[in-house]
Amino acid sequence: MVMLVLLAAAMPFRFPVWYPTSFPVIKSVSILDMMLVVGLTVLLLDLKRRRLNLGYRALALLLAVPVLVSALSLMWSDDRIATLRTTVNFLEAFVAYLFVTRELAGVAVERVVAFLRRYVWLVTLPAVFLLLHVPGFAPYEPGLSHRSGDYLSYYTRLSHPLLGRSNNLAAVLAILVPVLLHVGHSRRDRLTTLTGLVAAAAVICTFSRGVMVAFVIAGVGCVLLFRRPFGGSWKPLIGKVVVGALSLVAAPIALYVLNPTTHEYFAGRLSAANILSRAELYRAAFEKIEAQPLLGYGAGAVPKGDAVLIVDVHNTYVQQILYYGVPLGALVGMVVLSLPLFFLLRRGLHPLAGAVGFGVLVDVISFAFESSLEGTVLRVIFYLHLGMLAGLLRSPVPEQRREAPQGAAEVMS
């Protein structure tokens, strides 16, 4: 079941569905949606035999906050249909977390890492096939003209035919890179190390500036705050870091040389158009926040039908304030920011906690530059990843690391 859900999350093809005009909430259904309906059914049937497995209760409570706030905003939303749709999507994401938490309870580290490895390959290969113009892997975005700039941009850098353009793919893979590289190094697992390098190379080939800046900020922050953020000594890593760095430099150079459309992309990025468009988004967003600072406009709602903000602000934290107002928006933003801290505080209890926390920190920082958390499929995948990474830390700890410091039992609970 876990493998089927991961397969559906890697290629979440959507089907348009018919619905009554009086109930326009569900416009389409993806394979991932259908798999999670099966997962929810399994969870409900399992309640007859045992209590719901929340994994780490504190983490489950944190992830439930956005769901509850989104549902609460139905009371004042400017667009109740959009808010209801967003709330259903949040519930679906929470089901994904609960499902993988149940399925991975007591599963060995090696098995969980194998799932993560397979998922990286399942996500990366369609992106490569898209660049190679393999039939069946063209960009799938209903209503998008094949001659439009948005369509052609899929071929300028590594993008996914179903998950979307490069920033989306980078956000999906970035959270897994530190974990796979750490496991591959610490356990001398060449396949896992190779998979981690492939994921890192794919992130660089997306040319997602937000995610790459997030890696730098997260790395500097972890080094300054923790003397050894991932545990162990740095010396054995020097050789691997040099080889890995050379490989990661070679990947984007090869893409630039072999893919002529990438040249056009870089030429366009030298202009100030992107910076000006982001500045216009922020200006429009802060004007709307100033107009309704207390409660906002409701989850998923476009403020007063503003044409500038019809997509998003490209900043998760500003977007939450726009949706829920300053008090609740700041609460949801603080919950998202606290997620990496939840894992980093467990560095002394599990050898993988530092790498997991680093990966989550990269995604959380990138949310300040991108709108990944606002994507309906990407939101579900983010919760799915958190459930799998939490399951990784709940796996049996090796004998040499089982002695926890005083008070560790309270932290683990």
UniProtKB/TrEMBL annotation:
Q: Where in the cell is it found?
A: Membrane
* Protein's membrane topology: Multi-pass membrane protein
Q: Which domain of life is it from?
A: Bacteria
Under InterPro entries, the record lists: O-antigen_ligase-rel_domated (IPR007016), WaaL-like (IPR051533)
List membrane-spanning regions.
Answer: 26-47, 54-76, 119-138, 167-185, 197-225, 237-258, 321-345
Q: Cellular component per GO?
A: membrane
Give the record's keywords alphabetically.
Answer: Ligase, Membrane, Transmembrane, Transmembrane helix
The Gene Ontology terms for molecular function here are: ligase activity
Q: Where is the O-antigen ligase-related domain?
A: 197-331
Major localization listed first in the record, in broad terms: membrane
Q: What is this protein called?
A: O-antigen ligase
Instruction: Name the source organism.
Output: Actinopolymorpha singaporensis
